[in-house]
Amino acid sequence: MKIKGKLHRVTSLSSFVASFLKTGGNPTEGFTNWGKARVHLVTDFPSRKFGGGFPPSMSLKTDANSQGEFSFTVNDAMAEFRGQVIAFQTTTIPGPLPGMPPIPILDPVYRSAPFKFSAMSAQEQNTVRKIFIFQATTPTESGISQQELDGELATLRSSLKLDKLRATILSNRVSASAEKSGGKLDFSAFVRGSISDDLGRVIEVKAGEINIDLPGPDFIVGLCVDEDAIEDQIRAGLSNLSKKISQQLLVELEKNAPGLGAVASVSVWRTRFVQTGTNKIKIPGIAKPLEVPIFTVVPDAAIGVPKKLF
User: If we measure between CA atoms, which residue out of 40, 70, 73 comes closest to residue 57?
Assistant: First the structure.
């Protein structure tokens, strides 16, 4: 079985939308070739469930050429399983040690709806599927503010029966800590684009760099502090923010591109931490208050058409 595709970059959203609607889904204006990109064909083999991890599990990968063209060959034995095409914009960061090669960073710019391999007709397998991607910039007011985060955490602290739960949006992550029965858990929460097969889920909030400080021997404090349960529930609580911002981005899509909402998918290609103000803190013995920056987390959306490839 063959899957052939070509990525295009939308250069003028208004021209593209007008042409898309005029031609019944075969636009001729407002875009150019995307160029090189990493493309994964994710499968639900063997569990019939998509993993959703980075990099995607049980997937084939290839690199689109300078024209944005890519292809996959799938074994016929996979016919009864499902696939999903995910395209990534690739950047790099320096290696952690001298002499080490740069580390690639993959940010999703397109996700197709899952499809069954057996649903691909012979004609579809011989046709290059055209994919159009527009990288948008989300308004700051549609991001996650410190005030909204505080509101979510108040509910989460109560549901987890924690003594304390604090989180602060910094310039590149969210720093958080939780306390219960004398035990303390510190962690950083990172926001990035989702590669879930659930296209309504566009960002993931992952807890990382976790440090657990227990006040005594584990066999004693373990009766009061279940660190694994706290970590798992904090992850679940943070996902509420993910769902909220996902819906905001989908609403923003329909507002900016009327008529495309039903046929487009949304991914997040970049997450920005934007300073939106300062908080003045009075320190005893110091006349001038300390000014602490206040940040908002802003996920930038990539609109991909068509959502359904097969």
Answer: 40
Residue 157: predicted pLDDT? 79
- Give the Cα separation of 39 and 114 in Å (integer): 15
Residues 47 and 53: their CA atoms lie apart, in Å, by 15
Taking only the tens place, the pLDDT of each residue in 115-162 is 999 999 999 999 999 999 999 888 888 888 888 888 877 777 787 778
Predicted TM-score (pTM) of this structure: 0.83
Question: What is the rounded distance in angstroms from the CA atom of residue 94 to the CA atom of residue 283?
Answer: 39
Strands 129-135 and 2-10: parallel
Residues in Cβ contact with 59 at an 8 Å cutoff, skipping those fewer than 6 apart? 40, 41, 42, 43
Helix intervals (H) in the chain: 13-22, 122-125, 146-160, 218-221, 227-256
Q: Is residue 146 a contact partner of residue 168, using CB atoms and an 8 Å limit?
A: yes
Contacts 24+ apart (CB under 8 A), 120-124: 120/1, 120/3, 120/310, 124/310
pLDDT reading at 230 higher than 70: no
Q: Which residue has the tokens 């799938």?
A: 74
* Rounded Cα–Cα distance for residues 49 and 43 (Å): 8
The CA–CA distances, whole Å, from 242 to 15, 132, 144, 155, 158 equal: 31, 25, 9, 15, 20
Q: CA-to-CA distance for 232 and 255, rounded, in angstroms?
A: 36
Query: In the 8-state DSSP scheme, what is residue 252?
Result: H
- Whether the CB-CB separation of 131 and 37 falls below 8 Å is answered with no
Residue 194, SS3? coil
Residue 81, both tokens: 């399983």
- At 109, list the tokens: 């710019």
pLDDT tens, 149-166? 888 777 777 877 788 888
What are the boundaries of each domain within the chain?
A: 2-135, 142-244+270-299
